[in-house]
Design goal:
Blueprint: H1 2-8, E1 14-25, E2 31-42, E3 47-58, E4 70-76, E5 85-92
Antiparallel strand pairs: 1-2, 1-4, 2-3, 4-5
């Protein structure tokens, strides 16, 4: 299974964190921005607030994730200055 997964990702091994999010930008070549929405507890007001996190991830040509897709990204070695994640699975395609 791991050899198959590495072949899909261009031979890049994954490790560490695994996140799910929605692709919000695919303008850069072979790169996508994935947004995660988290809830953060604020003790002073005893309430939760929404916090968004945008992560730049490598988008292999075999995956070809587009804006609106729900994807799984996994941590890997540094690919560039800002990219240290790679898209490993497309959970749900955007409905047209």
């Amino acid at each position: 299974m791991e050899n198959k997964q590495e072949a899909l990702q261009g031979g890049i091994r994954t490790r560490g964190n695994v996140f799910t999010g929605i692709v919000v930008s695919d303008k850069a070549p072979k790169t996508v921005k994935v947004e995660r929405i988290l809830t953060h507890y604020v003790p002073k007001y005893e309430r939760y607030k929404k916090v968004r996190s945008r992560i730049t991830a490598h988008n292999p040509e075999s995956m070809n994730a587009r804006v609106g897709d729900r994807v799984v990204i996994e941590e890997t070695r540094k690919i560039s200055k800002t990219k240290s994640f790679i898209v490993t699975k497309i959970v749900e395609r955007k409905k047209q």
